[in-house]
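Example record

The entry below shows one chain as it appears in the dataset: sequence first, then structure tokens.
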Amino acid sequence: MVSSLSTRTDFGERAGREHLCQEGYGAESAQGSVPKPTVCWSNKRSPLLPAEPPPKTRPSLVLGRLLTVRAAVIFLMLVLVASVLLQAILYPWFMGTVSDVKTNAQLLKGRVDNISTLSSEIKRNRGGVAAAGFQVQMVNASLDRVRSQIRRLETSVKEANARLQMLTSSWEEVDKFNAQIPELKRDLDKASALNAKVRGLQGGLENISQLLQQQNDILQMVSQGWKYFRGNFYYSSQVTRTWYSAQQFCLSRDSHLTSVTSESEQEFLYRTAGGLLYWIGLSKAGSEGYWYWVDDSLFNKVQSVKFWIPGEPNNTGNNEHCADIKMSSSQSWNDASCDNEFLFICERPYTPSEPCQDWPPSSNFKLQCLLNSRKCGSLLHTPG
């Protein structure tokens, strides 16, 4: 390799000198002067001349250079193989070491975090320790109070023992009382039975008293011309009035023209009327109005069909807006002009009166009312 490099250098130098000679010739001919013969010396050996003998080379020098190059190459290969082997051997160990370092770093970081957490908890627990110390002081104070209470209890126990000793001495008397308990229980049972009988008698007396009071009220109303039927009083007038005048009269007597809400009441009323014309409390507003009861009772249109005389109400002359009982039968209602004057029937519900004290039942009601005029003065007014 070294000989080839030197040969290339000698050849380059010769070519350069040849090139310079040619440039010199070209420069002389390019000046524009009269051409003249020029001699150009060339380094090239003429083929007509005999060839120079080849230069003598030193075999030992070339061999030494080749050995040097070979040694360098082998050294480099050994270095390369050594580096590869070292990398193959040391890299896993190095990576494991790095991993261990990272793991240790994370563990250290966790321990540092735990230490910081513990420090914060210690700071918080300082306040808790202080509070616990305060609570311990309070507990000690409470224990002192408990000790004093225990001492008082011990004193009370001693007193109780003394009392127990006193009670123990009186067991004989207690035994006597225990022997009397069954007899007392029997007496108590008898008293309870008697008490129950008394309460029963009282309830019966109260019922009897209420019945007597009701009978007394009914007899007083009957004595004034009223009739009693199923919780209501009915008064049949002796004079005739228009429908409106009859209603006003009934109102002045705490009543109203009668309403009819059942078949039994209808039968009682037409039997009371006895075939005479009597106003009842049924009216309507105008020719197209609806029938209604003056006491605001519900008017049953379906039921009332049974009570009208066949063909009624017919509103003759468009002026028949009030109802009366005309016949002595179940179908006895008739519509008539409210200005007609008929007899009428007032109705008022029965309300128990205030019991009159020191007023025993008697048949002479007017005399009784005179004696108790403050409570029963209204009963002396007889309807017209």
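Notes for this example: Residues 182-231+351-384 form one domain. Residues 1-34, 358-367, 369-384 have pLDDT under 50 and may be disordered.
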